[in-house]
């Protein structure tokens, strides 16, 4: 269980993108006034949050979730 919790801490950019995607889809599904502006704002906030979270991933390469995902400097660069 400790390894899973450590892995999630290095997986935050993907979690932020997934949560942002869900918020954008929900905001687009409901007829909110100024829907386009809300969706655009949520998208920008989500991408900026993922960018900030990617900047915290510096360090040596590591495997996450019992070796299923690898975080290395080249992968972080392309994120």
- The helix count comes to 4
Percent of residues in beta strands: 5-15%
Radius of gyration: 15 Å
Q: Sketch the major β-sheet.
A: 2 strands, antiparallel
Instruction: Kindly state the percentage of residues in helix.
Output: 55-70%
Distance between the termini: 27 Å
Class of secondary structure makeup: mainly alpha
Shape: elongated
Element string (H = helix, E = strand) = HHHEEH
Condensed summary:
This protein is 67% helix and 8% strand. With 79 residues, it is mainly α.
Structure notes:
It is built from 4 helices and 2 strands, in the order αααββα. It has 79 residues and is mainly alpha-helical. β1 and β2 form a beta hairpin. α2 runs antiparallel to α3 (35-55). The protein is elongated. The model has no long low-confidence stretch (mean pLDDT 83).
List the helices and strands and how they pair.
Blueprint: H1 2-9, H2 12-29, H3 35-55, E1 62-64, E2 69-71, H4 73-78
Helix pairs in contact: 2-3
Key features of this structure:
79 residues, mainly alpha, two-stranded antiparallel sheet, 4 helices
């Amino acid at each position: 269980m400790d390894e899973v919790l450590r892995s999630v801490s290095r997986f935050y950019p993907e979690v932020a993108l997934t949560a942002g995607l869900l918020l954008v889809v929900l905001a687009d599904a409901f007829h909110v006034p100024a829907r386009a502006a809300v969706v655009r704002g949520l998208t920008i906030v989500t991408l900026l949050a993922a960018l900030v979270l990617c900047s915290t991933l510096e360090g040596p390469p590591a495997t996450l979730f019992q070796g299923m995902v690898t975080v290395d400097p080249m992968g972080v660069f392309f994120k």
